[in-house]
Amino acid sequence: MPRSGPAGHRDPKSASRRSVLFGIGAAGLLAGCSRTLDMEMLQVPEMGLDTTPTGSIRPSISVDKQVTSPELMYASFTDEGYQLPEIPFAKVDPKLRRQIVVDPTGEAPGTIVVRLQERYLYLVQTGGDAIRYGVGIGRDGFRWSGRANIQYGKKWPTWTPPPEMIARKPELEKWRGGQPGGLDNPLGARALYIFQDGRDTGYRVHGSPEWWTIGQAMSSGCVRMINQDVIDLFSRVHGKSPIVVG
Description:
Elements: H1 12-34, E1 36-37, H2 70-73, E2 76-79, E3 82-84, E4 99-102, E5 112-115, E6 120-124, E7 129-134, E8 137-138, E9 146-155, H3 163-168, E10 190-196, E11 199-208, E12 217-219, E13 223-226, H4 227-236, E14 242-245
Parallel strand pairs: 1-2, 5-14, 8-12, 11-13
Antiparallel strand pairs: 2-3, 4-7, 5-6, 6-7, 9-10, 9-14, 10-11
């Protein structure tokens, strides 16, 4: 509750805090009008905001230094020379949008946890929170599970279909040598490569231009994400991060 000083005057710190929050909200509305952002616009300064976890009071949509609203999270912007299209987030189940939640995994901070049945990927944070993203998973008979590590990541990666996929879909023969990165590439804007015991599993956590498949079991085994979400995840993953899929 805002504090009041003598004769009912409000604490100037409270007024300042309200001004900051109003400013962030206004920025979100303006961004919502243009729907296209430069990456520099996403660098929202801390401005003294208290980011300490608040017990049972949790945001329903991600709120951090660079995120204020779905309009910003899923806006169009230019990345590495590619113009990512805006995601019509109103058509995405709110549960599958990027958000901060109480960590349900019990894993160490920095661990990526994919819960296949839930269709969620969690990036465990310090302080008991996790960033949760909606994902698409492999269809029956194509899923992988286990404990492993992210060996490395790539921006706008080349996609090379495995021979068995080409056998199932002969039209992919043209990409036997690899499909260059781009807006139509099945690996999307980023890919994180999963290795187990030093060997490539062949499975990836990657972006996808097919945002409407998030929450469904349609892939050939990889974990797919909205491109804007995988870019966010990629920026937060450092080194050979552990990953748990199950």
